[in-house]
Every structure is written in C-alpha cells, then in structure tokens.
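PROTEIN DESIGN WORKSHEET
SECTION A - STRUCTURE
LENGTH: 193
TOKENS:
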C-alpha cells in the first residue's frame, strides 16, 4: 500500500508543468533520454509504476546515454560541494580514515583511466571499506561487463532518488536489484554519428 506522502509526492510529479518535471527528473538522473522517457510516461498511478518505468528506461539506455548519466556523478569520496544528496549518498566515506580516502582517490583514478568514466556504485548504506573493496574487484572486469554493472548500480541510485522525490524512500532491499539480468543485456546501442 502506498503512503499518503508518496501519493502526494507522486501527484506533484504527475502534475508538474513539463519543463519543471523534466528538471526534477534530470536531477535524479543526468541522462536526458532517461528523463524524457519518464516524463513521457506520466501520469504514474503508483510509485511502483514510476520505479518500473525507471528500470526499463535505465535498461534501455544506449552507451552514450549511460555515459551522460555517469557524468552527473562525482567520484566516490568526493561528493559535489553544496549538494546534500551527494553527501548523503556517500556518507560511508565521511568518517573514513585519511589512508582509506587516499587509497580511494588512487583507485578512482585508476578505474577512470581504464574505463573512461567515474566508478559508479550505489553508495547508500555502504561503508568506505565496502566501496574500496568493490572498486578493487570491479577494476579487473572487461569493459562490457563493467558497463552492465554500472547500469545496474545506476538503476539502484535512480530508484532511491525517485523514492526521495515522491516521498517514498525505497528500502535498500527493494533497490538492490532493479534491473533483472535479462533486461540488462547490452544490445550495444550506439548513438548514430
């Protein structure tokens, strides 16, 4: 059953003027394609309908759209200054030791050099050590595999942010696997030149 808070937040999203709705969706995910798809699917009857559309939009992002979405995320351990959402999401690094922060900086740089984008992980609820261990594990992945892990992590982040937007914080267990394996398969969708 949907809470009245979620219902009120969802009603606001459903009735916002198009440009205002696009702006709030684009704050959730920096991919224009993702935001446009969610905008076009309004109105949403329930928060679950919103999450399902987000999952489908995330699964369908072409490589260029996924790159655009990742560009909206700061490196782990370096939240965007003045952005409370970024700080909240990366809270696990806030109390990390100077050594761990230095190690994460080096790992972030090595990851970015290998893959050409920021290391993306749903940091909500994770410790600094868990994030460090994840980047160490994932840096050995082939590019295609890593892109699909990033897609799944982006889906988790989008669900949590949408939940906050509509007043229905998504419990971590519901955000844990938003994009089923068969939907996350990379169709190697490239943007036309």
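SECTION B - SEQUENCE
RESIDUE ASSIGNMENT:
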């Amino acid at each position: 059953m949907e809470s009245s808070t979620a219902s009120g937040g969802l009603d606001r999203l459903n009735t916002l003027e198009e440009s205002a709705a696009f702006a709030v969706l684009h704050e959730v995910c920096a991919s224009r394609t993702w935001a446009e798809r969610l905008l076009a699917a309004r109105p949403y009857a329930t928060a679950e309908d919103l999450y399902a559309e987000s999952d489908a939009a995330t699964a369908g992002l072409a490589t260029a759209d996924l790159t655009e979405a990742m560009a909206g995320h700061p490196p782990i351990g370096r939240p965007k200054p003045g952005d409370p959402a970024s700080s909240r999401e990366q809270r696990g690094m806030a109390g990390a030791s100077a050594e761990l922060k230095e190690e994460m900086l080096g790992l972030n740089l090595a990851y970015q050099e290998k893959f050409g984008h920021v290391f993306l992980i749903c940091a909500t609820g994770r410790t600094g050590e868990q994030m460090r261990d994840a980047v160490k594990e994932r840096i050995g992945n082939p590019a295609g595999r890593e892109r699909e892990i990033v897609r799944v992590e982006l889906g988790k982040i989008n669900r949590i942010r949408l939940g906050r937007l509509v007043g229905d914080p998504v419990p971590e267990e519901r955000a844990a696997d938003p994009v089923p394996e068969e939907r996350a398969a990379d169709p190697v969708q490239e943007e036309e030149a």
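SECTION C - NOTES
The two ends are 46 Å apart (CA to CA).
The chain has a mean pLDDT of 84.
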